[in-house]
């Protein structure tokens, strides 16, 4: 199984982009580890991640704007609509 999140390849990403890609790779490694072990249903993992994201967003400003972005990204990545 490949990476869960694939970032588009661009010329020389800046330091913030590199840091975000590193974090994404670490999250992907945790997800793939548990899926490959076969002990966690991917649907349960998606629900767990939604729960954690909601908890994170509780502490942020501009929740409505961020929610719109998150919804758009989720729908795009999941090929919904």
Outline the fold blueprint.
Elements: H1 15-37, H2 42-58, H3 63-77
Describe the protein.
68% of the residues lie in helices and 0% in strands. With 81 residues, the chain is mainly α. It has one domain (15-77). The chain starts with 14 loop residues before the first helix and ends with a helix.
What average pLDDT do the residues reach? 87
Tell me the total number of β-strands. Answer: 0
> Which ranges are low-confidence, i.e. pLDDT below 50, for 5 or more consecutive residues?
none
Round the Cα radius of gyration to an integer and report it. Answer: 14 Å
Name the beta content range: under 5%
* Beginning-to-end CA distance, first to last residue: 25 Å
Please count the helical segments. 3
Largest sheet: none
- Given helix and strand content, the structural type is mainly alpha
Count of all domains: 1
The geometry reads as: globular
């Amino acid at each position: 199984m490949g990476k869960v999140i694939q970032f588009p390849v661009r010329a020389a990403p800046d330091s913030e982009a590199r840091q975000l890609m590193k974090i994404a790779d670490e999250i992907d490694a945790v997800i793939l580890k548990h899926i490959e072990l076969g002990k966690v249903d991917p649907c349960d993992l998606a629900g767990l991640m939604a729960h954690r994201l909601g908890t994170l967003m509780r502490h942020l400003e501009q929740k409505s704007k961020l929610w719109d972005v998150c919804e758009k990204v989720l729908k795009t990545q999941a090929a919904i609509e």
